[in-house]
Specification:
- The structure is a single chain.
- The chain is an alpha+beta fold.
- It folds into 2 domains: about 80 residues, 2-Layer Sandwich (GMP Synthetase, Chain A, domain 3), CATH 3.30.300; about 60 residues, SH3 type barrels (Roll), CATH 2.30.30.
- Helices cover about 20% and strands about 30% of the residues.
- It has 3 helices and 8 strands, in the order H-E-E-H-E-H-E-E-E-E-E.
- The strands form 2 sheets. Strands 7-6-5-4-8 form a 5-stranded antiparallel β-sheet. Strands 1-2-3 form a 3-stranded mixed β-sheet, with helices on one face.
- Helix 2 links the parallel strand 2 and strand 3.
- Helix 1 crosses helix 2.
- It starts with a helix and ends in a 19-residue tail after the last strand.
- The C terminus is likely disordered.
Length: about 170
């Protein structure tokens, strides 16, 4: 099994030396179709130059052997921004997204999975608080969260996806 935390720990110093933040490390796929996605960020956003510099900095670490056991076999490396709809995995991700609209998939015990969408009100080390459209708040523990991300809402788009009627003269 691939240890994302070990990979992140190995890459963190090189990314930080470029005045960038290592936002997350994702590994998807299996066999020859594995993708190692290194997500970087900084205040003001990421440009192509920052992605190029980060890629050049992490390749020697990945090829150097210090994490070979963790990342054995072939994979495709992608270095990218977390994007507009950012994955939320760690408490600091949730804290940084406070005030944003989020979509969270939950599974608690034997209950069927459910999704909560609303404004992320607060987050601490154990849980986050979300206010769905109903207006009530719900505290969600990280242990019950299967998947979470911020939601980008296009200005002027109706929530239901229905087309706006345009008055014509």
């Amino acid at each position: 099994m691939v240890d994302r935390e070990a990979i992140a720990a190995a890459l963190q110093p090189a990314v930080a030396a470029l005045d960038l933040q290592l936002y997350d490390v994702e590994i998807t796929g299996t066999g020859r179709s594995r993708v190692l996605r290194v997500l970087i960020d900084r205040d003001g956003g990421i440009d192509l130059d920052a992605i190029t510099r980060a890629t050049e900095a992490v390749i020697p670490i990945l090829d150097g052997g210090s994490i070979d056991d963790t990342l054995a076999g072939s994979y495709t490396l992608e270095v990218s921004s977390p994007g507009l709809e950012r994955p939320l995995r760690r408490p600091e991700h949730f804290r940084a997204a406070a005030g944003s609209t989020v979509s969270i998939k939950l599974r608690a015990g034997d209950e069927p999975a459910r999704r909560v969408r609303g404004v992320l009100v607060d987050a601490d080390d154990d849980a986050c608080t979300v206010r769905p459209d109903t207006g009530t708040t719900e505290r969600l523990t990280y242990d019950d969260i299967v998947q979470a991300r911020t939601v980008f809402e296009w200005a002027g788009q109706p929530k239901s996806g229905k087309q706006k009627e345009v008055a014509r003269s």
